[in-house]
Amino acid sequence: MTTIIGVNAYHGDASACLVKDGVLVAAAEEERFRRIKHWAGFPSEAIKHCLAVGSVRAADVDHVAVNRRPSANLLQKALFAFSKRPSLEAVANRLKNAAKVASLEDAFSAATGTSRSELRATFHAIEHHRAHLASAFYVSPFEEAAVVSVDGFGDFVSTMWGHGKATRIAVADEVAFPHSLGLFYLAMTQFLGFPHYGDEYKVMGLAPYGTPLHLDKMQSIVRLKPGGRFELDLDYFVHHTEGVSMVWEGGEPTIGRVFDDRLVGLLGPVRGKDEPLTQYHKDLAASMQAMYEKAFFHILNHVQQATGSRRLCLAGGCAMNSVANGKVFQQTPFQDIYIQSAAGDAGGAIGAAFAVWHESLLKPRSFVMDHAYLGPSFGEDEISGLLQDREHDLRAANCVRERVDCEDKLCRRTAEAIAQGKVVGWFQGRMEWGPRALGNRSILGDPRRGDMKDILNLKIKRRESFRPFAPSILRETVSEWFETDYDVPFMLQVYQIREEKRSTIPAVTHVNGSGRLQTVTKEQNPRYHRLISAFQANTGVPVILNTSFNENEPVVCRPVEALDCFLRTRMDVLVLGDWYLSREETA
Q: Do residues 19 and 38 share a domain?
């Protein structure tokens, strides 16, 4: 038995996974345990979870792999530093971060309470984008595929592509610092008044409310080059001269402003985060998304032509751009696509682990990641014990609870509550790997209600009104409801809802008629599939509104977090495993 721990460390979305004999048995992000969004640092709690799931002692781990290699691209780094002379502070921050990666053995030893002398593991540093490529290809169902990674930066590279076949990935080309589509998207996200780490998805949701009237200005910022390449007009950025102020110190990551004042000269005043969103801001968001897609498909079409493959594996933070992902079949000759659920930096943990398994240990492929339920689970004893301990709180909130042993009855009762317009917290099985709630840590609602978005935002989410909610749909019914019939198990593609169906499910239909769907099969998630089937039997609609189980915090991990969220919000029903909790109506 060969065991490999993979980690994404000292970066946003710190995470860990466990691979045993080539099978991914556990994976989780550190934020779920620390309860701080995008937690950055060393993923000690995630590592402990993975070891516990696999019944493996730290001393018995054979390999530990991290998705960073500070020694990568040293010549390019030296030449750039010589030419640009970044600030001493920026250099010091980079060296400090690199030193932490280099001391991985000490961090792993401390996190697991195991002395260095007890550890037998070999430690591996895998180049950032190679780990991204591995995270997509080696767990995909494809024997061969084009592979593309696009993000901000990692190991001095922003974009990498090539061809995967069996247990090898041949890298064909890359785009190096300081040119980056991820930095372009980040700069515009900050310019539009969304300052927090990971806010790019908000701008993606805002874009359909605008028209790309300013694409010409965006094309002056991002310039497309032959061979699938691109470059930024660096006059509009500061990261290449001043460096980027980044904090990855064991907490919520922060990134300083990356755009120069000359961007204000091009686009006008920067929007403050609390200032109103005007139509101009919406048009800028639409223009930025259009420019990103133009560059993205410029890369993909080149890679498809160069590899001749009809299959595509995507990774990197930009692979979370579900709107662009949903247009791959329209804009390129690719016919199949695979994006694993944690496509961003968290996913680098599994990429590092599988790179060691296939490329260092020369092992054949035997695993396909067809579901994302790889996190912690909790048994009946823990849930019933929690409810007993919190009996006083439940009574104070006028809540009643009942254990429903029959799964069919539990799903029918829950589906009926959803059909009545109630907001339901749904906590089941193992937590999802990646940022999307996929039916185990979800808040559910009726997609037929035009006011459901407002109800959710009033009762629980308190988020921007322009952000859409997602539909979970029975896989066997996708062709009836969406214009594209394809597997989307991880909610990472946006497709157009059929025009005649949009009025039936307005709560999950975005302003442009699209939906960021999750396809659900009986094999991937039997209980969630049964719940949606029960809702279909009740209403004729095989779709449920699905959003993450949280309230301005990381998605809930443990039953106590689900219960606390239920009690402090105006959620109507909580289903914790087999337990059905509801608030009694008062006169």
A: yes
